[in-house]
Design a protein that fits this description.
Blueprint: E1 2-4, E2 16-18, E3 27-31, E4 38-43, H1 47-64, H2 69-85, H3 87-98, H4 102-122, E5 130-131, E6 138-146, E7 149-153, H5 161-172, E8 176-180, H6 186-203, E9 210-212, H7 217-225, E10 229-235, H8 238-250, E11 254-258, E12 263-267, H9 273-285, E13 295-301, H10 305-316, H11 337-352, E14 356-359, E15 362-363, E16 375-376, E17 378-381, E18 397-403, H12 406-414, E19 418-419, E20 421-425, H13 429-436, E21 445-448, E22 460-461, E23 464-465, E24 472-473, E25 482-490
Parallel strand pairs: 7-8, 7-10, 8-9, 10-11, 12-13, 12-20, 13-18, 17-18, 20-21
Antiparallel strand pairs: 1-2, 3-4, 5-6, 6-25, 14-17, 15-16, 19-23, 22-24
Helix pairs in contact: 2-4, 2-6, 3-4, 3-6, 4-5, 7-8, 9-10
Enzyme class: oxidoreductase
Family: Belongs to the aldehyde dehydrogenase family.
EC number: 1.2.1.3
Length: about 500
Amino acid sequence: METLIANDSKVIPGTWVGKDSFLSTNLIESYSPIDNSLLGAVSTTTREQYDTVITEAYKAFKEWRKIPAPKRGAFVRAFADRVREKKEELAKLITLEMGKSIQEALGEVQEIIDICDFAVGLSRQLYGLTIQSERPNHKMLETWHPLGIVGIISAFNFPMAVWSWNSTIAWVCGNVTVWKPSEKVPLCAIELQKIVSQVLDEFNYPQAISSVINGDYRVGEFLSHDHRVALVSATGSTRMGKEVAKAVSERLGRYLLELGGNNAIIVTPSADLKLLIPAVVFGAVGTAGQRCTSTRRLIIHNNVYEKVLHAIKNAYNQLKIGNPLDEKNHLGPLIDKTAVDNYLKAIEKAVSNGGRIIHHGGVLEGEEYASGLYVKPCIIEVTPENPMVQVETFAPILYVMRYERIEEAIEIHNNVPQGLSSSIMTLNMREAEYFLSSEGSDCGIANVNIGTSGAEIGGAFGGEKETGGGRESGSDAWKNYMRRQTTTINYGTDLPLAQGIKFTIE
């Protein structure tokens, strides 16, 4: 196979080299969680190669920022057109390397296309404000300028889409990007970078506008500690995010964090089961529970508790688990053995702390599941005091619990360290509005009569507390990738000072 590596001074940025020409002898091997087959290997980035990438990226930035934003948008549009042409091919690669169902993989590629559309429109806005001055014959303006180099650290579960949320917006804002993908899914990053590289070449733009650096956490540390990287956008675990925040803060840089979620749905007596069941099931088992927005907790009113559980168990019994390339299967494997171990330990701890298994989990056996990474979705009845309720386990485990009053449900809902996505299923307007009020959900995303999982690119995506506080994708999230500048213009013949200060010289 061939791969893009971070380049040293002997290699032109954007050069593709074959497996016999690796500059680094350290390789990352990518195995498919579907059957443990070896998909390929990529070279890791040395410090010397990284420094060259950053040097070239800054050179590219000085050229890129001069190009009018609408023309930068035209580049993004051309990239989106290429992605459209390769949608099925890219989705299959996501499924092969990450293991999510092919339908979800197609949806992930569609997210890339959608955010490109958003970014293209944004390229003709990037608006500032006009501000009324207290001084006569003065005008105040707010303008926005690109930051420079944006470092992107992404997780395995969305190996393409999350990068696109950051990169396409960063590009139209006038920045260049350096992407450190998860070492679990390096081939997805390489395939996207190939497309970007081709489009950059067609437009005769510098290749270093977009770069990929492969490696483990140490390569991520290069970005976090580097004062030349203006913004580090990191998606992953809360533990990782804290390390990034510490390193970037020490150099007074900017960071944008999208971290763990521990998402809940509150089920009220008036909940519509036709809406509730697919929302809960997809939220809990979609991507085999490996989404930051996966539904981890179900808080059900006493009056409908048994009815809701019966319906959910019936739906779980219909789930098909197997090769995610087969559209008939609802979920595929977990990403690796560590994920399986964490799944099993979480079930054991939840039960040892008083939990009762409602729908049994476990690792599936048989020829189709020979990789050992296929697990059964598990439902566990717990009390809110069970310590595992506080933990995000990236696996299809759903904790169910009871409540009596809506105020109690909100308290249970908010009493976790994470604050990403939330939902209430109700036909009661008062309950819905209470959930959306300042007394209600403390999450960055609050939904009514839809699940916690899945978000459109038009709205800002992100959460509070240990989720990190970052916002990506739509709305005004573009401001993360730019610096604000306030300008005052005096077009008069006098020089009055603000606040009425008198300063006279002869």
